[in-house]
Amino acid sequence: MAQEDGSDAYDVIVVGAGFGGLYALYKLREQGLRVRVLEAGAGVGGTWYWNRYPGARCDVPSVEYSYSFSRELEQEWNWTEVMAGQPEILSYLNHVADRFDLRRDIQLETRVAQARFDEADCCWFVLTTSGEELKARFCVMATGCLSAPNTPDIPGKADFAGAVYHTGAWPHEDVDFTGLRVGVVGTGSSGVQAIPVLAQSAAQLTVFQRTPNYTVPAGNRPLADADRDRAKAAYEIIRARERESYAGIIFGFGGHALVLPTERILETSPEQRRAALDEDAFGALRRYSDIQSDPRANELACEMYREMLRRIVDDPDVAERLSPRGYPLGCKRPVIDTDYLPTFNRENVTLVDLRRGEIERITPSGVQTAQGYFGLDVLIWATGFDAMTGTLLRIDVRGRRNLGLDRAWAEGPRSYLGLQTHGFPNFFTLTGPMSPSVLSNMVVSIEQHVDWIAGCIRYLDEHELATIEATAEAEAAWIEHVQKLAQGTMWVSPSCNSWYLGTNIPGKPRVFMPYVGGVGTYRKHCDRVAAQGYEGFVLG
Ligand code: N01
Q1: pLDDT, averaged across the chain
Q2: Residue 66 resides in a domain
Q3: The CATH number of the domain where 395 resides is what?
Q4: Coil, strand, or helix at residue 492?
Q5: Residue nearest ligand 1's atom 15 by CA
Q6: How many domains does one find in the chain?
Q7: What is the whole-number distance in angstroms between the Cα of residue 388 and the centre of ligand 1?
Q8: I want to staple 382 with a disulfide (CB 3.0 to 4.6 A). Which of 10, 166, 190, 202 is the partner?
């Protein structure tokens, strides 16, 4: 497509119109660049466009899970709950798209099939599934970390005759479960959020649980006017502190005030731990400093969790089935819920603990497990995503010498700073593997990456340089640094399976993908690299 100046190339193609793609478009366009955003969905919003299952909600406080780039936007927008639900976040993102006139550069319902680097021309050719080809100097993949839904390969899954849904690709019209027998497979964040809501309308809800999760109540509530006003007045300080913090959050995960752990659980008596649970069940698990680093301490915390659960769930056998065992607290992504455990006290809810007999096959009318058959009208997969690499690898990305990203990442993702892979010049991965991304408030990490990329492109243009590419040495050193930081933590414990490690996808290499050093430290690394003329990159 010809540009206003007659050239047929864009400066930047951005793939994805979620939080990342929208801000990338805003920022790069402000810089005078010609930008085109390609988005597979029929609307903007990314994660919040696709994940509209009942109960979908963010677990980072909304005043923090929002853009900081516009003071006016911060002051205009009024969040109504401490942690906003999906519809409110989606309307925020639509407001942003309108407020900053972004839509004119976004092409919806456009899925990217291939991105190919042309060495002679020093540019990327991006091919869509409808056959359109676009050309740009730079590619920014704002494709999200949790955007490739995973439906497990269970025999007979195509045979089910009733309605089938995936939480990560939920229909846009309301789904009515009244009077129906509904089955949910999966008890990660999505399942845990959907289950209590589904239980209210379904005639019978059957939950197929492979691994029980450690989940704690979110304590969500309406955002009081006074609290909202206070946040608005203090935004400058809030944002500055988020940027220097560990996780890009200062009010605390789930909206609970951050408590610095000061006690060692290994130094407590059983009575003291029971008293701590009596006082504040949720807070109890956050007051100890040794849980993340010492397996014995961790097991004591796990037992505290199971004790909390037994206090909530009436039937001791159901409580046992819900009890996580054999893997540490803190290995998987924390799960925060609304009424999850009490839902299992309802008459119309059945918990199938797959540790007692796995799913053997899906039949046209239900699920056959080794412990019996469960008849269903509706089947919901809450089985997560091929995280962090899945969406990128579903695109045929070809760098120098026709190198495929799938080949470069055959033994796990390789990246320098989580921003670029050797062999793929001018190709940036927003919140990519080996950056803090999923261990942080995504919006803080997205803004940091977009600002860094925008600064990088400005630098190249000012110095009349055409390309930037991570060196193999810098990439290898960064990967080693990332892996070393994670060593000894519960995230990489041998008994841990998680999408952070890729172990939820059969055949995916077991590699811990996020950077655990914290967003503040990470930002300093990135700033230093830029200040030193993009150390670790070759500029050409
Ligand atoms: O996916 P998950 P998710 N048979 O991978 C089970 C973000 N998020 O969509 O643990 C039976 O966590 C699997 O079992 P197991 C957040 O970052 C945020 O729930 O692998 N079960 C697990 O129980 C989150 O972490 C929010 O043994 C099978 C479940 O499916 C991420 O998205 C809300 C199975 C998948 O859980 C992903 O969450 C929602 C099989 N073959 C999501 N395969 C908030 O902000 C998989 N499972 C609150």
Answers
A1: 95
A2: no
A3: 3.50.50.60
A4: helix
A5: 211
A6: 2
A7: 14
A8: 190
